[in-house]
Every structure is written in structure tokens, then in C-alpha cells.
Design a protein that fits this description.
Helix content is 36%, strand content 36%. It has 243 residues and is of the alpha+beta class.
């Protein structure tokens, strides 16, 4: 009986050992490969711009500050719409009411009201006129002008195709240098890369005196804006099996 048990244990150990050897052998015979990265880029002229305008108002009385701010931001909205901008392209960005602190006394000596709107423009030729009209109407806060492209998905797919060809070219060059042949693709991994909107007109700024901020031109306020180009990039990692 003891002999039978010892034999059974020996068989089990032999099976386990054989499985371990098979695993090790598989690891040793894993297909050799070449791992490369590919990059692609596509440039495009922006066809969408977003601009943030706002009005900051200060007053010792909160109600007066809000009432004055409401009037001024209404004037800014009217000026923007008068340039042919649809209401669908104008949204409230932020509204805040905060105490204006006297830090020496540790008390509030008034209130600050801020109301900002985001305007989306689909005509790049009127950016300067829109900015000038908003400032002339009373906007004393402005944010970055940010440019983007409408058909960004198609452009990104084009950049992906370029990245794939770049990866294959690198793999072929390596294979040739090492005197091996590429057979199949084992894996393709897309990296998280996209075209972020590009800011072209500086950071947030508050203009205490709009007339000191920029000169009045003969035809009204006009802000010179250069759209430039947007670069959409894509990156991938590809593993090629080699013979």
C-alpha cells in the first residue's frame, strides 16, 4: 500500500515537472520581434476660434455691482450679436460674486461681480472686428483666443496612417541592418495624442482702461490676429515578428 502511494506521488511530481519544463521551453522559443514607434503629423489652417469676453464690476453695494454688471454684459452681448454671431455660438462661461477684502482691517469693503461669455467664431476674417466691438461695448476682461479645426477626426486619422508607415519604414531599416525578414505584426498600440486648441492671443487680462489697451483705428476698434496653423500629431507602437 505504501509502495502504491509513493508511486502515485512520483507520477504527480513527474507531471508537474514536465509542465514546468514545457513552460520554460515555450518562453525560450518565443518569436523574435522588432518593436518600433511611429509618428505622424498633419498641419491644417484653423477654421474655428473661441474667445472669452467678460465684464468685471466693483461696488461697495452688491446689488449695485450686479445691476451695473448686468447692463454692461448686455451691451457686450448686443455688440457681438450685431456682428452676425448666432446665439447658439454664445454661452455663459462664468458668473461670480465675491467680496472685495480690505486685508488690513480683515473685512469686506465692497463686492466684485464677474460675468464672462465664450464666443465661437466660424469666420476667421472677423476675429479682430469681434474683439474690437466687444471691448468698445464695455468688455474689460478677455481670455485666450483659441484656434481649432472642425474636421479634426479625419485629420487625425490621416496622421495615424503616416505614423503607421513611419513605423514600418523603421522596422524595415532595422531588419535590413540585422539581416532578418519581417513576417507579421504582433501588436499595434495607439498612444494618446491629439490636437489641442492653440492659444494665440496671450493669457487672461483685465483692462482697467480699454482706451489705453489698444488704439482706435479709423474704421473702429480692430485687433490684429494671426491664425497660423495647427499641427495634429499621432503616435503608435508596433511590434513586428521577424524570421
Amino acid at each position: 500500500m505504501n509502495s502504491v502511494r509513493r508511486t502515485g506521488v512520483a507520477v504527480i511530481l513527474a507531471v508537474i515537472f514536465s509542465a514546468m519544463m514545457a513552460t520554460v521551453a515555450f518562453g525560450q522559443t518565443e518569436r523574435p520581434n522588432i518593436s518600433v514607434s511611429g509618428a505622424g503629423a498633419v498641419t491644417a489652417t484653423p477654421d474655428i476660434a473661441t474667445i472669452v469676453f467678460g465684464v468685471n464690476t466693483e461696488n461697495r453695494d452688491a446689488r449695485t455691482a450686479i445691476t451695473t454688471n448686468n447692463r454692461d454684459i448686455a451691451n457686450v452681448l448686443a455688440a457681438v450679436k450685431a456682428q452676425g454671431i448666432s446665439e447658439d455660438d454664445i454661452v455663459t462661461h462664468q458668473f461670480t460674486l465675491s467680496p472685495r477684502m480690505d486685508w488690513q482691517r480683515g473685512t469686506a469693503d465692497g463686492y466684485t461681480v464677474s460675468n464672462t461669455i465664450t464666443v465661437t467664431l466660424r469666420d476667421m476674417d472677423i476675429i479682430g472686428e469681434i474683439m474690437g466691438a466687444a471691448i468698445e461695448a464695455g468688455a474689460n476682461v478677455t481670455g485666450n483666443v483659441r484656434f481649432s479645426v472642425y474636421d479634426s477626426v479625419a485629420l487625425y486619422q490621416e496622421a495615424l496612417a503616416i505614423a503607421a508607415q513611419d513605423a514600418r519604414d523603421k522596422a524595415n531599416a532595422l531588419a535590413l541592418a540585422m539581416n532578418v525578414n519581417i513576417s507579421t505584426i504582433l501588436s499595434v498600440t495607439e498612444q494618446s495624442t491629439w490636437a489641442s486648441p492653440v492659444a494665440r492671443a496671450g493669457s487672461w487680462a483685465m483692462m482697467e482702461d480699454a482706451e489705453m489697451a489698444m488704439p482706435m483705428s479709423a474704421g473702429g476698434w480692430g485687433v490684429p490676429i494671426q491664425t497660423g496653423e495647427i499641427t495634429i500629431t499621432a503616435r503608435i507602437n508596433v511590434v513586428f515578428a521577424i524570421n
